[in-house]
Amino acid sequence: MALFHQLMKFGHGKDMLERHHLHILRAIKEQGSLTAAAETLYLTQSAISHAMKKLESQIGVSLWKKSGRQLHFTQAGEYLLTLSERMLPQFEHAEQQLKQFAQGQRGTLRIGMECHPCYQWLLKVVEPFLHQWPDVDVDVKQKFQFGGLGALFGHDIDVLVTPDPLFKPGIEYVSVFDYELVLVTSPQSPLADQTYVEPHQITSETLITYPVDQARLDVFTQFLAPAHCAPRKHKTIETTDIMLHMVAAGRGIAALPKWLAKEYQQQLNLHILRMGKSGINKAIHLGIRAGERDDYIEDFIRQASVTSIHHKL
């Protein structure tokens, strides 16, 4: 805490730490040098050096040290860099929102997806939402790979769609629908004559999943790993369409939500199996920052729940 107080104290009635200092630190980190950072910020190198030396003089600590052409952040520099990574996206989002308000728009609802197979369901939610809120845009981000909680805390997204909520202070979750995780095979598969499948029966199969770490795949954590089993081969495919075409062609098996498997069963020759005698039951949650339920966010949550019921997910 001593470092915090040293950095954040005031001098002569004026704030020593200003937003442009954070921009400079972030640019140096991203670009790797003062010269490149100056070009990115449309400043001269001397202007950057002068601003940061003045800050260092005021706070009484160095923010980086030079080793040849390399810059290495000190403890103080690392602290301010972390602050910049947390605060600057919030400033930038606020400015974007204010600009949209000035243009007569409500803003943008930014949705983060930690559920690969939920994209088709999300489309059914977004369509009526856009009709209901013509002055609100929607942006969907799918690149979190189970890092969405940080994006929610950092104000990079407003709503997180996840089957694996991590309960933290400051975050609220709403459960919008339950589903069963099932195994999908071709009708020609040796497994297809079963009503449910046990982990050891998959050891001779090729399992196809989304490109997510195994520690975050329920077919591994809740089904295979507890039984100390593994598939003969594990392949990853990004798109559900290609994945299930591969399964229908007998090139492997996949674990998907039952509602999604049933949708594809209408167009592809697929067989659905329960995993274990009792099955694997999951739920999709919407995570939001506590106290930030704007009226259009509330309506999105309501629409998500209604869509889940109407489509019997």
Characterise the protein shown here.
- The protein is of the alpha/beta class.
- The chain contains eleven helices and 14 strands.
- The chain has helices at 2-8, 19-31, 34-41, 45-59, 75-102, 119-132, 148-153, 218-224, 240-248, 258-265, 295-310, and strands spanning 10-11, 14-15, 64-67, 70-73, 107-113, 136-141, 159-162, 171-185, 196-197, 206-209, 233-236, 253-257, 271-275, 280-289.
- Strands 5, 6, 7, 8, 9, 10, 11, 12, 13 and 14 form a ten-stranded mixed β-sheet that branches. A two-stranded antiparallel ribbon has the order 1-2.
- A hairpin with a 2-residue loop joins strand 1 and strand 2.
- Helix 2 (19-31) packs across helix 3 (34-41).
- The radius of gyration is 25 Å and the shape is elongated.
Largest sheet: 10 strands, mixed
Strand content: 15-25%
Along the chain, the helix and strand elements come as HEEHHHEEHEHEHEEEEHEHEHEEH
Judged by helices, strands and strand pairing, the structural class is: alpha/beta
Average residue-wise pLDDT: 85
Rounded to an integer, what's the Rg over CA atoms? 25 Å
Strand elements, count = 14
Helix count? 11
Segments where pLDDT lies below 50 for 5+ residues?
A: 1-13
Percent helix among the residues? 40-55%
Shape: elongated
Quote the distance from N terminus to C terminus: 49 Å
